[in-house]
Every structure is written in C-alpha cells, then in structure tokens.
Amino acid sequence: MWAEDVALMRRAGVTLVTVGVFSWSRLEPAEGRYTFGWLDRVLDLLAGGGIGVDLAVPTASPPPWFSLAHPDALTVTRDGVRLTHGSRDTYCVSAPAYREASMRITRALAERYRDHRAPVMWHVHNEYGTPCHCDHAAAAFRAWLRRRYGGLDALNDAWTTAFWGQHYSDWAQITPPRATQYLPNPGQALDFRRFVSDEMLAHFTEQRDLLRELTPGVPVTTNYVLAGWACVDHWKWSREVDLVSVDDYPSGRGMAAAEQTAFTADLARSWAGGRPWLLMEQATGYVLGPRAAPKEPGEIARHSLQHVARGSQGAMFFQWRASRGGAEQWHPGMVPHAGPDSRVFREVCALGEALGRIPAPAGGSLDGPPVAEAEVAILWDEEAWWAVQGPGLPSAEIDYLAAAQQAHRVLWRQGVAVCFAHPSHDLPAYRAVLVPSLYLISDAAARNLAAYVEGGGTLVVSFFSGIADEHTRIRLGGYPGALREILGVRVEEFRPLAEPVELPELGPATVWSEVVHLEGAEAVARYPGGRPAVTRHRFGAGTAWYVSTRLDDSGYARVLAHAGPAGSGTPGVEVVRQRDRVFAINHTEDEQPVPVDGIDLITGRPVDGSLGPGGYVVVPAGAPESSVMYP
C-alpha cells in the first residue's frame, strides 16, 4: 500500500508528511535495540516522490516495555491512581527514566537520519499537556517553587496558607494539588499548572537542543492543542519553537466551525508574532461531540484557506488514511475508509491543486519580516484561563474561553481585523483592546492597560476581570480590583443570574450580574430597576467600557458599535488581506458581494465583485483598504 500512498499523495499535491509520531514501540521494540528498516523504506519512498518529511520524535507514547520496566514513570492522577499502558500520553514528564529514554530515542533518530534527504523539519512529541501527580512530579514541583519564591515565607504569603491551617514549615510538606477532602488551595493549583507548562517545555527544549546540535539548520517544532486540559503557556512556548504549529478541530458545524477555525488561526498567528506558522493537524470531518459527521462539500478547502490566509505555510491533516483498527479508527482521513474513489479524497485533491497555484507570500521564509498588525486586540492569557478553571469561584458558568471566542466571533462577523495579545504586550498600535473575563491580572499588566487608555486607546472590559492578582489573591476595596480606576466604577457585590434578565438597551443578559456604583463613569445600559449594567469612562485621552454581565452576540455587538471597533463586513464572508494578495471566502449558502477584484490565482478567471455560495478566491493585492490585514 505504501507505493500506492505515495502515488496518491502526488495526485493530491501533498508536499509534507508527518511520520512516526507514535512509533516508539516500532522503532525501539526493546531497550537499546532499534529497528529502523521500515522507516528507512518510508522515507526513501517519500523522498523519491518529492515529498518532504516532518520527522517526529515519538515521546508522546512510550512503548510497552518501557512502562513495564519503569512503572514509576507512568502517569498518576490527582486521585492517586497510577494509569497503565494501553493508550497514549501515559508517562510522567518529570520521571528521570522517561527523560533519559526520550533523549536516547531522539539521539538515535537524529544520528540515523541526519544526512537523509527526506526530513525537512523535526516534530517533537505530540500535543503537550498531560500532567502527573506522582512523587517525581512532586519533587520537581518543589524545585520549581524554590526557584520561583526563594523561600517558604514568600510561598506561604502567595498561597495564603494561613487559611485552613495550610502553613508550610518544610519544603517536603508540599505536593502537587492531589485529591483532598474539599477545595484545594487555588494558588497551589495555579502554580502547579504553571509548573507543568515549564516542565514540559524543559522536556521539549532538551530534545530541541540535541536536534539542533546533530542536524543544524533543520527547524524544530511541536504541535499545539487548544484545550482546557492542556497546561501550556503558548506565549512562552512560542519563543522556543522554530515554527509555531497548531492542531485545529472545531466542534461546531457550518458557520460555527468557520468561526472557531478563524479563532484558532488568529491565535496561532498572534503566537507566531507575525512570522509564518503551520496548521499541523485538522480533520476532513468533524471528530468532536456526540455525533461525528463529514464536513459539508467545500468546507475542507474553506477551513484550510482560513489558516493559509492568516499566515500558515500550508494545510496539513491528521490523518492520511482512516485507520481500519485502533482507538481512532473512526477519526477521518484524507483517504477515507471508502478509498480514493470518494468525495473526500476528490476534495483533498482539489485543495492540493488550489494551494499549488497560490505563490508563496512575500517574505514567506521562517525569518520573514513581520507586517502590520490588526486593528483590534483581544487579550489572551492562559494563566487567567487556568485560574478561572480553579476551585471555589462564585459561579461554575464563568468561561474564559467562551468569552474570548465571543469577542472574536462578533468582530469576525463584521470583518474587523483581530489579533490576540498578552496583557503585558505593547498595545498603543491597536484601535481597541477587548478584555474577556480576565480574572487574573498582575499590577504591571494593569498599569499597562491604564497607559494604553490614557494614551487614547479604547478598552472594553467584560465582567469578572481584574479581580485577583497573579497569586489568585482577591484585590480588596471593591471589584473589578486592579481596573477600578480605569473603568471609573466600584462593584460592591456579584449577583450570578439563575434566569436571564432583559436590558432595555441591549437585550438579554445571562449568567452574571453585579451591583455597580459609578465613580466617574456613566451608565450606558441598566439592569431592570435602574442599576448600571454597562458603563463608559473617559480616562486620560481614551475611553474604558465595562460590561458587567454576559450579553448575547447581538448585545455585545451593539456595545462594540458604540465603543468603536465594530465593522461593516458581510456576516459569513471573509476578506483577508496579506501584503501581496487578498483571500475572499464565502461561508454562506448564497451569492455574496465581496470588495475585491482582479484575477483569481486559483482558477485564472476574473473576479467580478461577488462570490457564489461556498466560493473562494485569491487575488493579487489591491483590494480596498477596508479589507482585513494579516501577515
């Protein structure tokens, strides 16, 4: 089948294949005994077909012999259950035996294939994010805490251990946040997630440095996954990878899938800091949720082009062939179970042909220069997301990811250029900055936001923001804590909502409400009974808005229209401008006008200012300035 695979890949326009992600047990069937012959054949076949290889270091799935020899390196859950081999990601990243074995297989692969013509990139691990609560993790966590705090006095203060008698008098008393009688310490829980991110990053950089030494000039990456369980600080990690790469599996269907795809692509573009990046994985069908289904005709190409338009160097998929067996036998493939005589494979071939006709963007190398940023920034901070997932919050319905997705979704529908920024980033270039439920914020980040507004910026802050410092300690004197002066309000108390209420100016409000007192701000919308719900405050040369409840998309869009960052695009139609070309994608089922003209680089036909249902074009730059700017 392999020769047929290469022939089909050539037909589909495949130029890069990830190989060996979960192949550790095939590559090293016993400790120190390597069987590379089958991989030699695969790489030779691919190279002979003109196809490059993203060669994986398979440390995400240790082989059965390793788990039997080193049971202490198996994952331990927070409940104290040691997992057994039989899935993937069953390891402790802090276990010395696992770290040593990871380096051995990395060295063996690099030495074997350092002179082979097929590998053009290294792919370390897969979707980092698995925590462990074993004794190895506990020892590494204590070492990390020593480096972070220096001494126990500082740690006890940061974690407020005086509460519930948790004061630590010896480092040996500290463990990961394992299962306990009631609520765990929120500062400990947050620090553990920070530790896991740093510990996994150390695992990655150890292998990256070895690969750079043995195969200089070959870029090294790992694939990010956007998931609540993944303890990865992507801003920090993106400084360490040679190429940001992401996996994207939208859970929605139809327009919702297009919105989620744009969200992930804009995050990846932002993490990459304006440099090119790569869509490492997507599916030819939906793989999440209770009812899996194929993507509708044309969606494979449209979703892929959303990523390419935002700077991805290509569109990759998991997986090539849908597997006939194994745990993910129902995960879609580029070649489905039906084989190449199928709609899915024909669409994959059409995508390959289309991408092959689009020339590489100007400055498209890994060292290509950054280009102009977007108009509006949404603040994205994984640590704030982790904190909102912590214990004992006043409502279980507070959802940082959902708040960020709503902010992005509303602007995407209006054709407004969006990127993401960390609260500590330089912000003056943005016309507006949106702050979605940023529960956790440092003093330095709060000063950064204040300087942005004082300098003339527009800030739109959603509820449950500015509440706690970086140690999850509540800022006293009234909410929203660090942002009170900027917003000109003082929130006396929270009142989570069991049922929706109607705001006369903005429509339904759900989940959350607050008792807001004006301290310089003016009320733009009020709750039933007259309490302020949405406020506006002049601060320096700029304006800060506060939304003290969860609005639906229509209500949030009206706030943004008043605040300034709203646009006038056609919902469901993307017009994405790069430096030298413009992508237009129609996600609707109707013909739609688009503000572009020129010759479509894909078909060679002129574009007459409209797109048919589900259509897409790529034209040379020259579209109106209202189109969205991306690298």
UniProtKB/TrEMBL annotation:
InterPro entries: Beta_galactosidase_Trimer (IPR013738), Class_I_gatase-like (IPR029062), GH (IPR017853), Glyco_hydro_42 (IPR003476), Glyco_hydro_42_N (IPR013529), Glyco_hydro_b (IPR013780). Its EC number is 3.2.1.23. Substrate binds at residues 88, 126. It catalyses: Hydrolysis of terminal non-reducing beta-D-galactose residues in beta-D-galactosides. Residues 374-563 form the Beta-galactosidase trimerisation domain. Zn(2+) binds at residues 92, 132, 134. One of its GO terms (cellular component) is beta-galactosidase complex. Keywords: Glycosidase, Hydrolase, Metal-binding, Zinc. One of its GO terms (molecular function) is metal ion binding. It holds the Pfam family Glyco_hydro_42M. Residues 2-356 form the Glycoside hydrolase family 42 N-terminal domain. The active site is at residues 127, 281. CDD domains: A4_beta-galactosidase_middle_domain (cd03143). One of its GO terms (biological process) is carbohydrate metabolic process. Belongs to the glycosyl hydrolase 42 family. This is Beta-galactosidase. The lineage of its organism: Bacteria, Bacillati, Actinomycetota, Actinomycetes, Streptosporangiales.
